[in-house]
Amino acid sequence: MVVASLIATMAFQAGVTPPGGVWQSDSETYRAGEAVMAYNYPDSYPMFLRSNTIGFVASLSTILLLISDLPFKKRAFMWILVVIMWLTITSMAITYAFSIFVVTPIKDRKSLSKTIVVAVIVWCSVMAVLLLVHTGRLIANALEEEHSRHVAVKRNRIAFLKKNFLVGYVISIVKPRQRRPNSGVV
């Protein structure tokens, strides 16, 4: 919950004071309080805003899920919570990349761009591996629980049959069947 709260705070702060700041006075093309980045980087600003908003909403969702009374002892709920946190952290990493790109001087952007591309590839690879591993564990645990449940049901059936067989056998010994007299019909 602490991490989600910290990320929500970071995302909120990045949303209200984007990299490059905001215009301090009105002009014919912009108004005071609008993001400078939106005018100087019109292609990057919407992506920055989207990733920041996704991180903000995902962190708020994590906080909401944690304070609710959902049964987080169940593996499926924990898996959902972990995936939401991955989404939150990934979107914050993307927001950071956009922020660094905007505040870096033009002469240094080419090397920064290469670094960011490598970092994004590595990050996405790590996230894909984590997602596959955690999904595999979730499926394996679900199959194991189903198998255990099936074995328990089978044991209960066998115990029930043994009990009923023994009860029937004991009754047949204790109370022998009475023979009907011959009615004379052949």
TrEMBL record:
Domain PGG: 1-103
UniProt subcellular location: Membrane
Keyword Transmembrane helix on entry: yes
One Pfam family cited in the UniProt record for this chain: PGG
Ranges annotated as spanning the membrane: 48-67, 79-103, 115-133
Presence of the UniProt keyword Calcium in the record: no
Keywords assigned: ANK repeat, Membrane, Repeat, Transmembrane, Transmembrane helix
Membrane topology recorded in Swiss-Prot or TrEMBL: Multi-pass membrane protein
Cellular component terms per the entry's GO annotation: plasma membrane
Name this polypeptide is given: PGG domain-containing protein
Source organism: Actinidia rufa
Upper classification of the organism: Eukaryota, Viridiplantae, Streptophyta, Embryophyta, Tracheophyta
